[in-house]
From TrEMBL:
UniProt KW keywords: Cell membrane, Membrane, Transmembrane, Transmembrane helix
GO cellular component terms given for this protein: plasma membrane
Membrane topology: Multi-pass membrane protein
Entry keyword Metal-binding: no
Protein name: EamA domain-containing protein
Subcellular location: Cell membrane
Keyword Cell membrane part of the UniProt annotation: yes
Domain spans labelled EamA: 17-147, 158-294
Pfam families per the UniProt record, alphabetical: EamA
UniProt superkingdom: Bacteria
Length: 311
């Protein structure tokens, strides 16, 4: 009975993790449009500095109000996470949006799951098995179609930045997973706030050093700042780390691939970035990958061992 109870609790945690992933994919998916609009009123590093620095301040306030542990622990790892997440992931993707379309930048940044699959095998021992290969093939084929390699030279630098952003995000996912294994009781808000704050420092310095036009505090820009600080910069990262702690790194990454599909659709509707036929087919394959990898994970974690059912 005790094993059966533990199994039911594990099922609930898995379901909650996928719900967290679904919410954050909606936030991160639509945020590509929000960020694309924001860089019209500020330089990429100015916007990245505001998003990361003030996002961390909001998280510290939440930590204080909820009386959670505020002390900085695991400093070297926290610093590495901050550089990967704030400078690598956030800074590079916002820079990529300056010269590239929101939809394509979103898709290229989400090459992240493939880098996670690559690094998680030797670093975490999370092998790709069985039907997971089918999900990988669906995702790979979808990415190739949306990537449109025949026209890569038209905005090559923006694409390069977007891919580098995805690589940085993937490595941060591996580092986060290893940190959770080493310090499983580390508070989730603390784990989100400190890397964001530490990583924001070099971004702020770069924003001050690089020449740029003064920021224009229009209603659109103010909305973008609030959306990024409160939702995309704080809530979504908490949801991401919550899901990452309860799912395999590869599973969490593949499931989050719904975000670029949302980004492409939102850019199509709001920014008139109309995807071509290949891009539409690519989105379908990415959706199939999402359904496959999520279904495999849910079935795997909800099956009860026959010996447990006989107790």
């Amino acid at each position: 009975m005790q094993k059966e109870t533990e199994s039911k609790q594990e099922k609930k945690l898995i379901v909650k993790a996928f719900i967290a992933l679904f919410i954050l994919t909606i936030i991160w998916g639509y945020n590509w449009v929000v960020m694309k609009q924001a860089v019209q009123f500020a330089s990429p590093f100015q916007f990245a500095a505001i998003r990361t620095f003030f996002g961390s301040i909001v998280l510290f306030v939440l930590i204080y109000l909820t009386k959670r542990p505020l002390a900085l622990k695991e400093f070297p790892t926290m610093l590495v996470l901050g550089l990967l997440q704030s400078c690598g992931f956030t800074g590079l993707l916002i820079w990529a949006l300056v010269e590239g379309g929101a939809g394509k930048t979103a898709v290229l940044t989400y090459t992240m799951p493939f880098w996670v699959m690559l690094f998680a095998w030797p670093m975490l021992g999370e092998k790709i098995q069985g039907w997971q290969w089918l999900a990988v093939l669906f995702a790979l084929f979808g990415m190739v179609l949306i990537f449109d390699p025949l026209h890569i030279k038209s905005d090559g630098f923006s694409m390069f930045l977007a891919v580098c952003s995805g690589v940085s995000w993937a490595i941060s996912a591996i580092v986060s997973k290893k940190l959770h294994h080493r310090a499983p009781h580390l508070d989730l808000l603390n784990l989100t706030a400190w890397p964001m704050f530490l990583g924001s420092i070099p971004v702020v310095v770069i924003a001050f050093i690089l020449p740029a036009q003064p920021m224009q505090w229009t209603p659109t820009f103010i909305f973008a700042v609030l959306f990024n600080v409160l939702l995309s910069g704080c809530l979504a990262w908490v949801l991401w780390l919550y899901a990452l702690q309860r799912l395999q790194a590869g599973v969490a990454s593949m499931a989050s691939m719904l975000a670029p599909v949302i980004g492409v659709i939102a850019a199509w509707i709001q920014l008139n970035e109309v995807p071509n036929t290949y891009e539409l087919i690519g989105m379908v394959f990415i959706a199939l990958s999402l359904v496959t990898i999520s279904g495999i994970s849910i079935i795997k974690h909800t099956q009860i061992d026959p010996a447990q059912g006989q107790e």
